[in-house]
């Protein structure tokens, strides 16, 4: 297992101009992370090829790997021309992944105001075709592409599985976020058990959960079913992180664990606490 951090953790400071991606990579190394996951929020790699080289150089200098490249995308609700343009755009993002030297790349697949299973079934063939074509393009570089369980529309474990099976490519898998299942009111421990065999990389995230009637106010958002959620430092929230990590261990997974933080606390200290908690919990799980 290789424990590291997603650059997304530092979006709070990047957005405020207090940190750039180079500083984020340095912070991850200082924390003891062995890899960084690159999420291009607050910086642009598509129009700044020099930054790709600078990122790889910085990671090498501080002695950490670049594990995964994660981008947004949407293939739902598009006309034929827009659909083809989006596929070609994501292929160009694969080229960036090649420049970063990664073998893993996550791209989003769909957003939809209509989150019904009926709409999902209708969209599935076209979504799968887009993912299949991108996975086939990535295969020539030895890159595995993936869909993450987030964004509500393709977030439940069975929908993720349905897409993976429809794509039917060995290099199309899932970025498995052990926390995100609560956004669609799914038990994370059950969902991790369902999908760990499909995982190319594992995110470790935590949430606070409050019932719909509590109405805790500013800083919270709602799950599909109406529960209130707020991002938490891993180990501080309401999720059973230890049980989820035990499932990861028992599956034989030996890849990257990537810490994610998206809460309200100052992001650098929160990420450090989350990283230390994941390392401690992983050691506890492996000692039992």
TrEMBL record:
GO molecular function, one term: isomerase activity
Keywords attached to this entry: Isomerase
Signal peptide: none
Keyword Isomerase recorded: yes
InterPro entries the record matches: IolE/XylAMocC-like (IPR050312), Xyl_isomerase-like_sf (IPR036237), Xyl_isomerase-like_TIM-brl (IPR013022)
Domain Xylose isomerase-like TIM barrel, first and last residues per copy: 27-265
Entry keyword annotation includes Isomerase: yes
Protein name as it appears in the record: Sugar phosphate isomerase/epimerase
């Amino acid at each position: 297992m290789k424990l590291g951090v997603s650059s997304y953790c530092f979006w709070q400071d990047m957005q405020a101009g207090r940190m750039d991606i180079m500083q984020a990579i340095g912070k991850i190394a200082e924390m003891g992370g062995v890899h960084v996951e690159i999420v291009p929020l607050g910086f642009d790699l598509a129009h700044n090829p020099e930054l790709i080289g600078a990122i790889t150089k910085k990671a090498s200098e501080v002695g950490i790997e670049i594990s995964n490249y994660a981008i947004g995308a949407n293939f739902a609700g598009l006309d034929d021309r827009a659909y083809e343009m989006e596929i070609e755009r994501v292929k160009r993002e694969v080229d960036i992944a090649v420049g970063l030297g990664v073998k893993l790349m996550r791209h989003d697949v769909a957003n939809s105001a209509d989150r019904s299973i009926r709409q999902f079934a209708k969209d599935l063939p076209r979504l799968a075709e887009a993912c299949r074509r991108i996975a086939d393009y990535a295969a020539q570089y030895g890159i595995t592409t993936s869909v993450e369980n987030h964004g509500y529309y393709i977030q439940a474990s069975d929908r993720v599985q349905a897409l993976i099976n429809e794509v039917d490519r060995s290099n199309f898998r899932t970025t498995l976020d052990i926390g995100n299942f609560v956004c669609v009111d799914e038990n994370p421990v059950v969902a991790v058990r369902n999908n760990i065999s499909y995982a190319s990389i594992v995110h470790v995230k935590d949430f606070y959960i409050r019932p719909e009637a509590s109405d805790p106010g500013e800083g919270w958002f709602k799950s599909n079913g109406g529960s209130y959620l707020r991002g938490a430092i891993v180990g501080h929230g309401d999720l059973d992180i230890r049980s989820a990590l035990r499932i990861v261990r028992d599956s034989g997974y030996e890849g990257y664990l990537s810490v994610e933080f998206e809460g309200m606390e100052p992001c650098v200290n929160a990420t450090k606490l989350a990283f230390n908690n994941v390392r401690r919990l992983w050691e506890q799980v492996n000692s039992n």
